[in-house]
């Protein structure tokens, strides 16, 4: 009884403190929503954005080999807008640490760019008044963002916190349908084995992988072929898991919602057990690479370039295999098991939240919002994505957004050079990804990849596994408390079940452990959040 009373007292104290903080932050936000002292310096439309030059500070994760202050993208934006950016960046792999330190320091950059602010961070720092609410700024100073949100109410729902505020702008990816890099077949193996019809069921896939193992499709006289290979240390089979889980009716590895709006916690589903059973079968027969739980992506790539892999995950097969662009290696067509009528096929959520936020010390939120709004137009998104016109590309018909590539200035790799001229390179940078951006730039191979994606994924009912949404502070606290231990246990047990270190006869004990750790509670929390999101 004493323990229970102590917990209750702590809960009440926390609630009172949260209420007091909410009252303070509401007062702060009410003040901060009023026009800033610099609002008169901002032009509401056209360029430049400001009447008199303005300097702002920006914090983001460094990528590529060029400092942001030397990037042509920021130099061109300064010419267009009149806003000079100074940068407080950190290397990408150390950015999360620096971001956390900055939030507790009390000294903030004016803008958080590509910061990957989680919904929990947005709510926490938004309710404290550190991050400004953006909805009024969007209404008055961001016509491109406003139109996107008006035309796509589900995006607005997904970036709006439970308190009704928008604290960060997202990355919007309308033309990237993949949930995770697809699987690809080695086309040379298919030809060598005389395969003209790709597997449609798990049994047909098993039979194909067995042939890869035993029939020497790379024709070197050695039994060195690896039918299926994965590489994602720390998250075990993540790069292939989504596509193989789908064969057993499951859309996502942790949380997904079915067609009846019921939320599931995947690791305790019967379909997940079937997935483990299937992978264990492949493992025992040496059809799944026995280095899958330990090798790096580079080690797996070396095997692909040595023509040893039959099926693997990659952005494209030819890149993984070190070849010139070609259409020889078909995309995996999701297979189904006997337990389902059709495979579950996951597609990209279309948005990545927390890409752009404005701090309370920003001297001109209005100018900041106008600056980033350009990145959500076709013209601006093109420049943010590919760098300013005249370096790697140029318009051939600007009215219709048709472009052509220019030679790479140093004759090197186009993507590597792009990392020198724009920060939108491997980080969640605030912008919108539209088909018009690549208009005129896509070749025959690009069209083939798009058709493979359409016919094998999109036309077969691919859908978002679970929407982007916010949890309440209480829900988030519960999820945060459970997630790390649950994820660690689930991934450890996946490896043990697949390799046979733990027999699948111990499944019931595994499920009981997960339930004790909060697995069922996770499903309940996300069910409540999903119902709230859907009815919003």
UniProtKB/TrEMBL annotation:
Which domain of life does this protein belong to?
Bacteria
> PROSITE patterns, from UniProt?
PROKAR_LIPOPROTEIN
Q: Does the keyword Signal apply?
A: yes
Listed InterPro entries: Bact_solute-bd_prot1, SBP
Signal peptide feature range:
1-22
Q: Does the keyword Lyase apply?
A: no
Q: Which residues form a coiled coil?
A: none
What Pfam families does this protein's entry cite?
Answer: SBP_bac_1
Keywords annotated in UniProt: Signal
Name this polypeptide is given = Extracellular solute-binding protein
- Upper lineage: Bacteria, Bacillati, Bacillota, Bacilli, Bacillales
């Amino acid at each position: 009884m004493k323990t229970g009373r102590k917990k209750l007292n702590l809960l009440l104290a926390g609630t009172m403190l949260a209420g007091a903080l909410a009252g303070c932050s509401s007062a702060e936000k009410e003040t901060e929503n009023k026009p800033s002292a610099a609002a008169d310096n901002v032009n509401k439309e056209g360029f430049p954005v400001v009447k008199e030059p303005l300097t702002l500070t920006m914090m983001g994760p460094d990528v590529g080999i060029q400092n942001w202050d030397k990037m042509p993208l920021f130099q061109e934006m300064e010419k267009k807008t009149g806003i000079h950016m100074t940068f407080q960046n950190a290397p990408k792999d150390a950015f999360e640490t620096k971001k956390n330190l900055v939030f507790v320091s009390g000294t903030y950059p004016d803008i958080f760019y590509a910061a990957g602010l989680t919904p929990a961070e947005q709510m926490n720092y938004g309710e404290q008044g550190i991050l400004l609410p953006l909805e009024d700024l969007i209404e008055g100073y961001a016509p491109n963002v406003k139109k996107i949100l008006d035309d796509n109410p589900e995006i607005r729902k997904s970036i709006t916190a439970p308190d009704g505020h928008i604290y960060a702008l997202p990355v919007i990816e309308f033309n990237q349908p993949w949930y995770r890099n697809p699987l690809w077949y080695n086309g040379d193996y298919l030809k060598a084995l005389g395969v003209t019809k790709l597997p449609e069921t798990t049994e047909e896939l098993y039979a194909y992988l067995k042939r890869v193992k035993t029939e020497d499709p790379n024709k070197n006289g050695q039994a060195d072929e690896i039918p299926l290979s994965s590489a994602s240390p720390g998250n075990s089979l993540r790069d292939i898991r989504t596509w193989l889980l789908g064969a057993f009716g499951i859309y996502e590895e942790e949380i997904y919602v079915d067609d009846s709006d019921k939320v599931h916690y995947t690791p305790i589903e019967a379909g997940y057990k079937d997935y483990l059973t299937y992978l264990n079968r492949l493992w025992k027969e040496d059809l799944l690479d026995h280095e899958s739980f330990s090798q790096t992506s580079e080690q797996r790539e070396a095997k692909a370039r040595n023509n040893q892999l039959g099926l693997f995950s990659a952005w494209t097969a030819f890149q993984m295999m070190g070849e010139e662009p070609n259409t020889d290696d078909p995309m995996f067509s999701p297979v189904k098991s006997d337990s389902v009528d059709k495979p579950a096929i996951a597609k990209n959520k279309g948005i990545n939240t927390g890409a752009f936020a404005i701090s309370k010390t920003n001297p001109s939120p209005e100018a900041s919002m106008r600056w980033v709004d350009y990145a959500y137009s076709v013209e601006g998104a093109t420049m943010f994505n590919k760098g300013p016109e005249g370096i790697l590309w140029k318009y051939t018909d600007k009215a219709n957004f048709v472009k052509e590539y220019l030679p790479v200035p140093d004759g090197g790799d186009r993507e590597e050079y792009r990392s020198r001229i724009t920060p939108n390179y491997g980080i969640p940078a605030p912008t919108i990804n539209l088909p018009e951006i690549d208009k005129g730039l896509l070749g025959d191979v690009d069209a083939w990849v798009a058709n493979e994606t359409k016919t094998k994924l999109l036309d077969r009912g691919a859908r978002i596994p679970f929407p982007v949404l916010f949890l309440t502070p209480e829900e988030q606290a519960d999820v945060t408390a459970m997630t790390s231990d649950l994820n660690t246990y689930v991934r450890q047990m996946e490896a043990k079940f697949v390799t046979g270190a733990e027999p699948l006869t111990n499944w019931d004990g595994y499920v009981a452990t997960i339930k004790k750790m909060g697995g069922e509670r996770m499903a309940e929390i996300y069910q409540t959040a999903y119902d709230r999101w859907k009815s919003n």
